Amino acid sequence: MKEAPRESYADKPDEELVKSTLAGKTRAYDELIRRHSRKLNAMLVQMLNSEADAYDVAQESFLKAFHSLRYFKGNSSFYTWLYTIALNNARNLMRKRKRERSYSVDDDEKGNPLEKDAELADTNLEADPIRKAQMKDLRGKLARAIAQLSPAHQEVVNLCDIQGLSYPEIARLTNISEGTLRSRLHYAHRLLQSYLADEV
């Protein structure tokens, strides 16, 4: 007797994968992890400035989302819901760090995750060593400028300018109004311009 082919989840939308997971098909949740882990990790590395911490928080967030999946109502996308869980976990870790030790703006041994992510994204830099050096210098200046912002301003800059989320998504994730978000972003951008001007 011929064995039935395994069900493929790669082409199914997130909503169907959530339903399949709730029906006991855990391979559907494996697909959700595969689909969203890279983007989630990149966001967490930006927030936490640590690949190890970002990995731990991402795993914790996927696990928590799995156990809470029955509460997902579908009012937002699965990723936005997952993002909210990860954001809260990251904030908790940052508060714990703050209690345990003073905040370090830069760590030359680990390198800056903003620089690493941007270098991976720009594959043409290898062909032009001068441009590569210029871009690395610019990214370093930008990373140092962002590090001078308050955590609240870093968060909205990361979500809007680096992650590319919309204002409504960011407002839901951070639990602030769009007006407050726009004001916070405007102020953060003015500070960044000032910090970058000092770098020149």
Give structural notes.
- With 200 residues, this protein is mainly alpha-helical.
- The protein is 71% helix and 0% strand.
- α1 packs across α2, α2 runs antiparallel to α3 and α4 packs across α8.
- It is globular.
- The termini are far apart.
- 20% of the residues are buried.
- About 11% of the residues have low confidence.
Percent range for β-strand residues: under 5%
Strand element count: 0
Terminal Cα span: 73 Å
The tally of helices reads 9
Query: Which shape, going by the Cα principal axes?
Result: globular
The Rg value, from CA coordinates, equals 19 Å
Unreliable stretches (pLDDT < 50, length at least 5) are 102-123
Strand count, sense and barrel status of the largest sheet are: none
User: What series of H and E elements makes up the topology?
Assistant: HHHHHHHHH
SSE-based structural type: mainly alpha
Classify the helix fraction into a percent range: over 70%
Mean pLDDT: 79
Give a summary of the structure in a few sentences.
Helices cover 71% and strands 0% of the residues. With 200 residues, the chain is an all-alpha fold. α2 (26-48) runs antiparallel to α3 (51-67), α2 (26-48) crosses α4 (78-100) and α6 crosses α9.
